[in-house]
Automatic annotation (TrEMBL):
Keywords: Cell membrane, Membrane, Transmembrane, Transmembrane helix. It comes from Luteolibacter rhizosphaerae. This is ABC transporter permease. Residues 21-220 form the MacB-like periplasmic core domain. The keyword Transmembrane helix applies. PANTHER family: ABC TRANSPORTER PERMEASE, ABC TRANSPORTER, MEMBRANE PROTEIN. The chain crosses the membrane at residues 21-42, 256-281, 301-328, 348-369.
Amino acid sequence: MLPLTYAVRNLFRSKGRLLQTIGGSALVVLLVMAAVAINSGMKRVLSASGSPHNVILVGAGSEESIQRSEVSEAAAGIAEAAVPGITEALGVRAVSTEIHYMAPVDLADGKRVQALMRGVTPQALRVHPEVRIAEGKFPGAGEVAVGRLAWRKLGITAESLKLGSFIVLDGQKLAISGIFSAPGTVLESELWATLSDLRVLAKRDTVSCVTLRLSDPADFVEADLFAKQRLDLELSALRESDYYARLSSFFQPLRAMTWITAALIGAGAIFGGINTLYAAFASRVREMATLQAIGFGRGSLLASLVQESVLACLCGALFGSVIAIVLLDGVAVPFSIGTFTMEIGPEVAVAGIVTGFLLGLVGAIPPAIRCLKPALPVALRST
């Protein structure tokens, strides 16, 4: 077996080829890590947004979109009294009546953006315990609270949604009274106004949904039975976790596109690497034949050539990983219903290292076999 130092020394025979290999593998590893971070980030935020303890009562036939749902406001009181197993604290049951409304809002600088508004009462904090008021206070009449990442979702600066500023919805000025956080959920990209304000501004007589928080997720059957028995209310019961799982499957084609893009670029890099190594190894046929003549087997030589390629690609993977940590880690990425944060964690790092290893392995084997294929007498006479 040839020593590893032989492969390391050969790496620097052609500095141009070495830089080309490192740069190409770094680019592919960076794209693969970005694809993994995007997929896992979007999946994570949609999974965390739905609690299995929460049941959403929406209008029958509106299971795919809460915004289109129409529910009588009286349904909240009826459900609160009829559905067993609702979480209760200090004699108050966790039932929240909400309006979900997508609408254009005008900012203080005159810019108009499309924002997802949620009309709520303080009861919303009982069914969404992950929400915390980070600055200011819960919105009152004529006020709005903004999610911590709403500015990123809207494509504006954080200064545009600072405390004390205002937005204009349908000609009505709403002062920003608070900034809330709900780590890892799409709620952080929303704007919350009072239910009464949004009912007037959205010109609705009904609400979008009633959310119940159950002590035991198994009590969902009771809420589902209630929705099926009260035909007069025309309700449908959904687990909140199931609703966001459906949204996650809706974005599956988008996530697949990131994988396809990374795979296509990776395939291009492999073919480019194969061409480069064909030229590099072709000039070493005589050298390989000489090593065979002094006793090294073809298997040892094949392993040494693959080592060279894998070492170069792993160097590229290292550079790609460093670039990913510097440029991608912690970056907030907006999508249609919220914002997720890209995290370069162990899963993403392993994907990058494995990609670099495969690039070196797959790209080196065909040229190495071709280099070692000629018979020994023929190879020794080659130039």
